[in-house]
Design a protein that fits this description.
The protein is an all-beta fold. The protein has a single domain, classed as 3-layer Sandwich (Rieske Iron-sulfur Protein), CATH 2.102.10.10. The protein is built from no helices and nine strands. Strands 1-9-8-4-3-2 form a six-stranded antiparallel β-sheet, with no helix packed on it. A three-stranded antiparallel β-sheet has the order 5-6-7, with no helix packed on it. A hairpin with a 2-residue loop joins strand 5 and strand 6. The radius of gyration is 13 Å and the shape is globular. The termini are far apart. The chain binds FE2/S2 (inorganic) cluster.
């Protein structure tokens, strides 16, 4: 598992970015705090190169800061264009006030492209 930090380091409605160097798969991951529930997805938008940790959290979705595609934090699925591909989701484990990630399978095993 990958150590993220203390639960207290992720404020309500905010996200932290776990840098690629910390992640075995070599991609950054964003961890979001939605009303005290934590969600982790690949940080890079599947449309272009934007950090979703810099996006806006609305309910259980994040809006990309570059072109406003929204991704469901529970499934990684985009709600519509311009993003067509989902981002990977990752399991978040909280133990004694600290946050860890179980990184999902590589992209090759991820769900197929979303129909437009
Ligand atoms: S980079 Fe995210 S919608 Fe374009």
């Amino acid at each position: 598992m990958i150590f993220v930090g203390s639960v207290d380091d992720i404020p309500l409605g905010e996200a932290v970015r776990v840098e690629a160097a910390q992640v075995d798969a070599g991609v950054p991951i964003a961890v979001f705090n939605v009303d005290g529930e934590l969600f982790a997805i690949d940080d890079t938008c599947t449309h272009q190169d934007a950090s979703l940790a810099d996006g806006w959290v609305e309910g259980c979705a994040v809006e990309c800061p570059l072109h406003a595609a929204c991704f469901d934090l529970r499934t990684g699925m985009p709600s519509g264009p311009p993003a067509k591909l989902p981002v990977r989701t990752h399991e978040v484990v909280v133990d004694d006030g600290f946050v860890y990630l179980r990184v999902s399978a590589p992209v090759e095993d991820a769900p197929a492209e979303v129909a437009a």
